[in-house]
Specification:
The protein is α+β, with helices and mostly antiparallel strands and 333 residues long. The chain is 64% helix and 11% strand.
Length: 333
């Protein structure tokens, strides 16, 4: 009898626990059932044990089902556990469905996870695909006011463009973003201006820039599709060609002056070298003249020359000096 009593008490306790557990989930279960998105009680309990907010998951499923999207609890739970933004992702998918866009749940989840931490959202991607947005080229935040190019005549042309794009959802994940679009459009503008024979042609045909840039397929590999490129402003800048010619002339003048200075320095060095050689020759003459008295002394000592010969030579030197003085010639040193 005691055993039966214990078993009965245990069964009652189990029943009460089961009742309260069911009572905790019955509101959510009943809401899903009445909304046409039924969820089993076991699934709710399992989500609770896994730490998943079953209430939000159920609300998300109800939202999806009411919008005509057949999303399972497992799909919603997987995206939540991947730290995705569940509600915004479903809202973006609903918007794409209403706009008859080809966007699957898998793509929406991939875009949501890829844009995490970038300041962009899957909802923005869908909205941009529905309602195209305009990108300024150059970006005003970059500090530049225009894209500058130089025509063949050397005149600088300043251009501001506005690029209308819409999201390409198939390439949004892994595709290049707005910075690449701006860089490619800027490159196309500079190339088009540079190929013009004169700046006047650019001023007269600004639409030519748009056509040439669009023909280059600049949206290849990006997350956007370029719809149009509109030239917002065209201004004439500096005469870059004249400035370059002036700079080249100054450089040529400086080079010529440097070469002339090199030649002058070489001439001065050669002159100094010649003067040094002259002084060296004079020193040799002086040295040779210094040997004359020694030679005379040696000649007198050895008898090869007499004293009369010596005095006769002195008389000839004196006579020569007197004649030079009379003639006004400067005696040679």
């Amino acid at each position: 009898m005691d055993i039966m009593m214990i078993v009965s008490v245990i069964l009652v306790i189990i029943a009460l626990v089961a009742f309260f557990v069911v009572l905790a989930f019955v509101n959510t279960w009943l809401k899903a059932l009445l909304a046409g998105a039924p969820v089993s009680m076991f699934t709710l309990i399992a989500m609770r044990l896994r730490g998943v907010p079953y209430g939000m998951i159920v609300d998300s499923r109800i939202m999806a089902v009411k919008a005509g999207l057949d999303l399972t609890i497992n799909q919603l739970e997987e995206h939540y556990l991947a730290e995705g933004h569940l509600i915004p992702t479903i809202q973006a998918l609903i918007a794409a469905e209403k706009a008859e866009m080809d966007l699957s749940w898998k793509q929406a989840c991939a875009i949501d996870l890829a844009t995490k931490g970038t300041g962009k959202t899957v909802g923005e991607a869908v909205r941009t695909s529905i309602n195209p947005k305009v990108i300024d080229c150059p970006n005003p935040n970059s500090g530049r006011k225009s894209i500058d190019g130089v025509a063949k005549d050397g005149i600088q042309v300043k251009v501001r463009a506005r690029v209308t794009v819409r999201t390409n959802l198939k390439r949004f994940v892994g595709g290049a973003q707005e910075e690449t679009i701006i860089a490619r459009v800027g490159e196309g503008i500079v190339t088009t201006i540079g190929s013009a024979d004169t700046y006047k042609f650019v001023l007269e045909h600004p639409d030519r820039i748009s056509k040439v840039v669009l023909e280059r397929g600049l949206d290849s590999g990006t997350a956007y599709e370029i719809l149009s490129i509109d030239i917002a402003d065209v201004d004439v800048g500096e005469n870059v060609g004249a400035k370059l010619q002036e700079a080249q002339a100054i450089a040529n003048k400086n080079m010529a002056q440097a070469q002339a200075e090199i030649r002058r320095a070489a001439a001065v060095a050669l002159e100094q070298e010649m003067r040094a050689k002259v002084e060296d020759m004079k020193a040799k003459v002086v040295e040779a003249e210094a040997q004359v008295p020694l030679a005379l002394s040696e000649a007198l000592r050895s008898g090869k020359m007499g004293f009369m010969d010596y005095f006769r030579m002195k008389n000839i030197q004196a006579d020569t000096a007197m004649r030079e003085n009379i003639s006004g010639e400067k005696p040679k040193e």
